[in-house]
Write a structure and sequence with these properties.
Blueprint: H1 22-31, E1 38-42, E2 52-60, E3 64-71, H2 90-96, H3 99-107, E4 113-120, H4 121-133, E5 137-148, H5 153-159, H6 162-178, E6 181-186, H7 188-207, H8 214-229, E7 233-241, E8 244-253, E9 257-265, H9 275-290, E10 293-298, H10 306-310, E11 313-323, H11 325-335
Parallel strand pairs: 3-4, 9-10
Antiparallel strand pairs: 1-2, 2-3, 4-11, 5-10, 5-11, 6-7, 7-8, 8-9
Helix pairs in contact: 1-8, 6-9, 7-8
């Protein structure tokens, strides 16, 4: 498999991002938007969450107030909500006319830190150019999202190394002959509490903290229900060995792309059959057979960048944090 630096880019219209849907942003508004330090601003004026930004307030050194702005649906330094990727301003462009008017609207609000995360390079460069002309301080960050896009499983398997094929695919047969194995799919409307209980339990055992807090669980739960009502497909997958749940995987399928949102498993079970890898391999196979892209999104594993070893394509993401006023002057002073 190619290294992440030479993986080919996969064309993707970020307008189709599941993270810029009303399902995601409405769920964010109903949860994180209710926090006392959050003030939402409806730039479009029509009550559409895709046209909203928010200001979040905090204190620097317990003395100086910070006002941080971001798109509704996106987290920041103050509001630590689950990560959203492939962000864009299409809804605001449709409402306000062009990106320059949007930027002027943002520029006129009372913020000293603006957090714009996980945009495409093209979208990011337009934003960064404008704010650079305003002499604000900008801090940039690059990331890579990983995907599998293959015509067939035979084509995909030919791209993988022997060890990778074994870890993610071939050892499934060994697992299924060593245990009484059942692949269950839970129901979004009736089984969310059971699924979140399993997911948080596996994370507690491995990381000493749950995957989702009460607030983030409420947010993700509402999003899953909303995206299913909007025509998406939610995969609450549970792998049971000898009638006991040992691995879970949460995926959302939207507009020919299946996003891997979360996973959890028991590391102590099944010896050299890595349950998390086998579960992920099954999900990838389902996506390839269904003719949809499997999206691991950005981020690396704890011990290695496992995504780059099983991906066929990449998508480059850019984030920028813009500061102005006293915070911008402080950043400029530190960088000199």
């Amino acid at each position: 498999m190619n290294s992440p630096n030479v993986l080919p880019a996969l064309p993707f219209d970020v307008q189709d991002s599941v993270f810029r849907t009303n399902a995601w942003c409405d769920a964010w508004l109903a949860t994180y938007g209710k926090l006392s330090q959050v003030k939402t601003i409806d730039l479009g004026g029509a009550g559409n969450s895709l046209e909203m930004v928010y200001l979040a307030s905090a204190m620097f050194k317990k003395v100086i107030p910070i006002q941080e702005m971001a798109l509704v649906g996106c987290g920041g330094f103050i509001v630590n909500s689950p990560r959203s990727e492939y962000n864009q301003l299409n809804a605001l462009v449709a409402k306000l006319g062009d990106k320059e008017k949007i930027i002027q609207s943002l520029d006129g609000l009372a913020w000293n830190r603006l957090h714009l995360t996980d945009f495409s390079h093209i979208e990011h460069s337009l934003l960064a150019q404008f704010f650079a002309a305003s002499n604000y301080h900008a801090q940039h960050q690059e990331d890579i999202a990983y995907q599998v896009s293959a015509v067939s499983m035979a084509e995909y398997m030919d791209l993988l190394g022997k060890n990778t094929r074994g870890r993610y695919f071939n050892k499934r047969n060994k697992l299924e002959t060593s245990f009484s194995t059942e692949w269950r799919r839970l129901n979004v409307d009736t089984d969310l509490a059971e699924f979140f209980g399993l997911l948080n339990g596996f994370h507690l055992k491995r990381w000493s903290q749950p995957c989702y807090s009460d607030l983030s669980q409420a947010f993700i739960g509402q999003f899953l229900q909303e995206i299913q009502r909007a025509g998406g497909c939610v995969h609450l997958s549970v792998l049971q060995l000898n009638d006991a749940p040992q691995s879970v995987l949460l995926d959302v399928e939207w507009r020919n792309r299946r996003y891997n949102l979360q996973a959890g498993f028991d590391e102590s079970i099944a010896g050299n059959c890595k349950l998390g890898s086998i579960h992920l391999g099954k999900a990838i196979e389902e996506a390839v057979l269904a003719g949809v892209v499997y999206d691991f999104m950005a981020g690396e594993g704890l011990k290695s960048n496992y995504k780059s070893s099983i991906a066929t394509h990449r998508f480059d993401l850019s984030s920028v944090t813009i500061t102005r006023g006293w915070m911008g002057r402080l950043k400029n002073w530190k960088s000199n």
